[in-house]
Structure prediction request, 402 residues.
Amino acid sequence: MNNLKLLKASEKHGSPLYVYDTNKIKKQYNRLKNSFKTVKSLQINYAVKALSNISILKFIINLGSGIDAVSIQEVHLALKCGIKPEKIIYTPNGVSMDEIKMAAEFGVRINIDNLSVLEDFGNNNPSIPICIRINPHIMAGGNSKISVGHIDSKFGISIHQIPHLLRIVNNTKIKVNGIHMHTGSDILDIDVFLRASEILFETAKNFRSLEFIDFGSGFKVPYFPNDSETNIEELGNKLSKRFNSFCKEYGKDLTLMFEPGKFLVSESGKFLCKVNSIKQTTSTVFAQVDSGFNHFLRPMMYGANHHIENISNPNDLQRYYSVVGYICETDTFATNRKISTIRNGDTLCFNNAGAYCHAMSSNYNSRYRPAEVMYINNKFELVRKREDFNDLIRNQIDIFNQ
Prediction:
């Protein structure tokens, strides 16, 4: 997608607008798949939480992907897209037993990360195979908010609780068909990933009925020009050899699973918004846009650096701007960022807007959530309408007008 096409999409569908390039999604999917081509059985499960639009889900499912769901609603979405239940792995955290039972009734794979939940589920459903999420006690990820495999994390069953875990499995007679871990997002150092994998392999030796080992994901993608990223090809080469070796030791071929979300869709996404005004203060030039952290939370939530381009005026003199939103609260997308000269009415493009962007949007300040379009077969297709006032009040009840 070039700038001219993006501008035409914005003119047709309005601003602000999310745009997703399916060519990039397919490229990332095939890149991951090819990196592990020496593994006999590989299953990629797309993490729905990254971007849950049903057209995106169907596109990724049609590539051959399974689904990683963290809520019963995501299970519903995946089933609505026509995927078979056995290609969904449900990995909740802190949900009710009723929700877990509901997922089990759908026939999806169940992933449990809590000893008390495991004991309860095993006592009442010993015939339903389950996967166990292990906490390897490894700090990995771009920052503390997205690091989920360390000792104080709420996720996973501690490796130091393996003896207790084995007692529950033996007492309930439940079948463990998978072992899982996820240490965090934006993992750059593949040695950290491989170290955690060794812990997972060691844990897997305790279970003789395994069908798969799920290594989670968290691969880092580049957010701006010359930014670093996970070397997927090197990881694929090293982990594939180790996985194949483990399968020989274990005595049968297992399926190697991943659950990428950001890796598949992040770089496909562009977020387009218009400049409402330029405001000069004593020390700062603000470019004020028709959006805010209600639409694009990651810079405020995680301190994420999304590369910003002025696609209306890309080749002018580079100036320094702080790009801010229209929310009645500090909502800063970028501070002192070098961008081609910005004028009122210009369209700015935020890159890497495919993952955890629209999915985390809200109606804060009673603003409408943006539309979404897919770029597929060389044309833009609307896949989510822009909200209007009726959407805003749809589920509200006016008790004074009954």
Remarks:
- The CA atoms of residues 30 and 63 lie 9 Å apart.
- Confidence is low (pLDDT under 50) at residues 140-150.
- The chain has two domains: 22-262, 266-384.
- Residues 232-250 form the longest helix (19 residues).
